[in-house]
Amino acid sequence: MSLISASLARVKPSPTIAISSKAKELAAAGRDIIALSAGEPDFDTPENIRNAAKAAVDAGKTRYTAPDGIPELKQAICDKFQRENGLSYIPAQVTVSTGGKQVLYNAFMATLDAGDEVVIPAPYWVSYPDMVLLAGGTPVIVECPMESGFKLTPEALEAAITPKTKWLIFNSPSNPTGAGYTRQELKGLTDVLMRHPQVHIMTDDMYEHLSYEGFTFCTPAEVEPGLYDRTLTCNGVSKAYAMTGWRIGYAAGPETLISAMRKVQSQSTSCPCSVSQWAAIEALNGPQDYIHNSLEVFQRRRDMVVEMLNDCPGITCPTPDGAFYVYPSIQGCIEKTSAAGTKITDDEVFATALLEETGVAVVFGAAFGLSPNFRVSYAEADDVLREACLRIKRFCNALN
């Protein structure tokens, strides 16, 4: 009898966390490492949010709360959805979890049975398929190549849906590509979904507020009200407000689903951190200047990184619509040999050689389900990003 469950044996560790950990180990050993592998803003959490947390501690708001969030935060989330997305929810339709990842995990654990399928467009966030597998479901991966803007087409979605399909997970702007769906593109997908009433939609809107000039964010239930009762709209405060370590994610959807997710959470982690919940209320209800200011910085960094990577031999880097990632192709580097003698057979070999030979840590494309690419997070200081891109260029120049 094996000690480790068969369910866990289907799952692999997060590649992004593994690469970030390796970069930290190398740095601790004295190597000059630039880590562009983690999706984490380099800004401090805004002062008003930090002050709200301090006030909560001073007021003794440090005890257990309701399993999936305090009423005040749930109301703030309802107000946010109404104000920014035109979606009307009541607090009973809202759940709050320890980060956005737990929201998605709870939903899958609450709904998936053996044989249930989840359509996942690739490139995808690394955790999607493994969460589905851990919950007993079957990931159905649909490749969305660079030629399609890394976006799912209505035709590809239609072809992926079967009688066993229970969920489509939808992420815009995307991690890892930064690709965003226009309202018209999203309407094409929702038209398909309206023809398949057994399919529910899980939207990962974590990068909603990181949408650049020329792109306007929208979410499926906003575009097609007919999908309201089949949609779990997921979001959080981690990326928009530089609150990654505070661990607050949230979602709104049908009461029956939210109740089932609450049951999962009540028997796993129980409530999110009480102090973080009060900080999240201030994030959602307080001044929003921080979002505008940080967006200007990220857009400047995006433009610099795209320009510099496109200047690297063998690399093609599209310009993303949002988030803080680029997902360049290394097709022109395949089968070449690095200065240290490593033959670049795929993007994992490329990323490993890049780290070992230049000290730049990126995440290889196979981790996100589409190769040959790699992901760069440009949530770093300008001078750090510039130096990283120069090292990548030197690495590419040396390939032969």
From TrEMBL:
Cofactors, names only: pyridoxal 5'-phosphate
Keywords: Aminotransferase, Pyridoxal phosphate, Transferase
Documented EC number(s): 2.6.1.-
Highest taxon in the source lineage: Bacteria
InterPro entries per the UniProt record, alphabetical: Aminotransferase_I/II_large, AspAT/PAT-like, NHTrfase_class1_PyrdxlP-BS, PyrdxlP-dep_Trfase, PyrdxlP-dep_Trfase_major, PyrdxlP-dep_Trfase_small
Aminotransferase class I/classII large domain segment(s): 32-391
GO molecular function: L-aspartate:2-oxoglutarate aminotransferase activity; pyridoxal phosphate binding
Gene Ontology biological-process annotations: amino acid metabolic process
Uppermost EC category: transferase
Reaction catalyzed: L-aspartate + 2-oxoglutarate = oxaloacetate + L-glutamate
Family statement drawn from the similarity comment of this UniProt entry: Belongs to the class-I pyridoxal-phosphate-dependent aminotransferase family.
Subunit-level organization: Homodimer.
Protein name: Aminotransferase
Species, as recorded: Halocynthiibacter styelae
Phylogenetic placement of the source organism: Bacteria, Pseudomonadati, Pseudomonadota, Alphaproteobacteria, Rhodobacterales
